[in-house]
Amino acid sequence: MHKRKIHFAWLILIGLCVAVGLGKSALNNSSGLFLSPVAKDLDVGMGSLTIYLSISSIVTLLFLPFGGKILSKYSARIVLFIAIILQAGSFALFGVMNSVWGWYVLSIPLAIGGVFITVIGGPILIERWFSKGKGLALGILSAIGGLLGVFAQPIVGALISQFGWRTAYLITGLGVMIIVAPIILLLIRNFPKDKNTKAYGDLSDDSNENEQQQVVEGIDYSIAKKHQLSSCWDYFSLLLLQFQVLLCMSQHISLTMVKKLVLQVQ
Predict the structure, then answer these.
(1) 209 within some domain
(2) Which PROSITE patterns is this protein grouped with (predicted)?
(3) Number of domains present in the structure of the chain
């Protein structure tokens, strides 16, 4: 009996689940767990420390339009590899900082890497690799990210209480980098043609595509450009709003968990 091979699109999805899941749960969403011990150890106000979260959000806002252009121009595998080095590396370096200015400076590469890992990398690659089942793939990606968060945040919290916030920063950042970077290099590919295949669910014939391209007439360039810009800005605004809401919720939830743990210990 002929045995069907697993389409490479599903391996792409596995790689994205690990990268996006750990990038969100272990790095972004755990930031609130560190605020109280860091502020206390450095003898700074919580408000002064959390400014780095605002800087990170602003950098994300400004860099999002350029992120899409970079992913469309360069190899997604290389871009995501560099992105996880920036994001996880910056997170790890928080552990050696002695001034709040270190958080302010490192929040910039942290946010730039996070744009690709946690915001646009997954949707763009799913769009390229899935002709059908895009909604299912996005749902799996979101679900795995939430599932990893269930385990990641308690582990990070335990590291902080057991070894201190400096060691916890280093272990978490370097651990995510060691896990995610090789997976990106092994599983992520730019387009289906890079693996001599088609997108998952694409049953079209090349000859039919050529015939359709010859028959279909174009539209005026100015109309197409106007429609494209309008659609892009609508999508960008919606994506940004969703990202900001999720980021704020995750940070406040993490901070609330820390306060409850401190009260229980006392």
Answers:
(1) yes
(2) MFS
(3) 1
